[in-house]
Every structure is written in structure tokens, then in C-alpha cells.
Specification:
mainly alpha
Length: 176
């Protein structure tokens, strides 16, 4: 979803006469924290899909490390309101993940709507919503069928809006 948001924001940025090269003028600190966080997530999901890891203490700690890195990045860049919006979206994702044992709740009706498998445990750090799920409405319960089929959350939407505003406004920014 974030790749789609990024592409759309670049298109909108160009419509508003922005330039991609202007993003270099946006002050941003410790970007490597975001890359490290997403590498942790990508490696964890890869290992789960290959059967090398199962959701449990190790994946919970890896998820915790990932979110700590993201929130540190947000803290170090708290002067940029669009990064704050992105981090708020990630916080909205972190809450149900950690209240549900380190797995994002995914709605059964949502995965049926977008045509995903019910064997969601093998896809990554997910669990199907059931009667024990805490704050299920913050989970991946929104079907998203645009270019690809995804189950997304309110947090994903907020983070994507923050990303889009960051890119669009950054494309308009010139050297100060």
C-alpha cells in the first residue's frame, strides 16, 4: 500500500509543479532507522514464510525493535508534521499488534473480500480476528482493492496520508 501511496504522491507532486529532486531539501535525520526497521520486518516475514520462524517471543522482540526504531526516527524528526502523522499511523498499528501477542489482527470478512488465504499465520505477523482479539477495529479490517488486493488498517491509512503529504510538500520545497 505504501508503494502505491508513494507513486500517487509523486504524481500529485508533479501536478502541483513540484520536482522529485526537491526532496533533497527536506530536513530529515536518522533515515537509516527507518531502513533498519523495515529490514527487520522484511527478514522476519521472509523467515516466517519460509518456515524458519513461527510467531512467538522472537518475533515479538523483533517487532518491538522495529517499532522502537520507527518511533526513534519520528522523535528525531518531530519538527516535521508529516513524519509525525506517519508515526501516529504506525502507533495505531502497534497498539493492536502488541495487545494481541505481537500479531496484527486481520478480519475474516476482509480477507474473503480481497481473496486472501485464511492461513494468515504463514503470511507473517498476523492473526485472524476472533472473540479474544483486542481492539480488532485497529487491525487490518479494511479491504483495499486497487492495483492489488490488500487488507489494511486505519493506521496504514494515516501513515500513507502522512507519507503522501511528506512527498507532495517536499517536492514543492526549494532550498532555504
Amino acid at each position: 500500500m505504501f508503494i502505491i501511496a508513494l507513486i500517487i504522491s509523486i504524481i500529485i507532486g508533479y501536478i502541483f509543479k513540484g520536482r522529485l529532486k526537491n526532496l533533497i531539501n527536506v530536513e530529515m535525520n536518522y533515515l537509516y532507522l527507518v531502513f533498519a526497521a523495515f529490514m527487520i520486518e522484511a527478514i522476519t516475514i521472509f523467515c516466517i514464510r519460509k518456515g524458519l520462524l513461527q510467531r512467538g517471543t522472537i518475533t515479538f522482540v523483533l517487532d518491538l525493535c522495529m517499532y522502537i526504531l520507527i518511533f526513534l526516527f519520528g522523535y528525531f524528526n518531530r519538527k516535521n508534521p508529516f513524519i509525525v502523522i506517519m508515526c501516529f499511523g504506525f502507533l495505531l498499528n502497534a497498539i493492536p499488534i502488541f495487545l494481541n501477542g505481537g500479531a496484527m489482527p486481520v478480519g475474516v470478512k476482509t480477507i474473503d473480500t480481497v481473496g486472501l488465504t485464511h492461513n494468515i499465520d504463514r503470511e507473517g505477523l498476523y492473526r485472524l480476528v476472533d472473540s479474544n482479539t483486542k481492539l480488532w477495529f485497529l487491525g487490518d479490517v479494511i479491504p483495499f482493492k486497487f492495483i492489488t488486493n490488500l487488507a489494511i488498517s486505519i493506521g496504514d491509512i494515516v501513515a500513507a496520508i502522512g507519507l503522501m503529504l511528506f512527498v507532495i510538500m517536499g517536492m514543492k520545497k526549494t532550498k532555504s
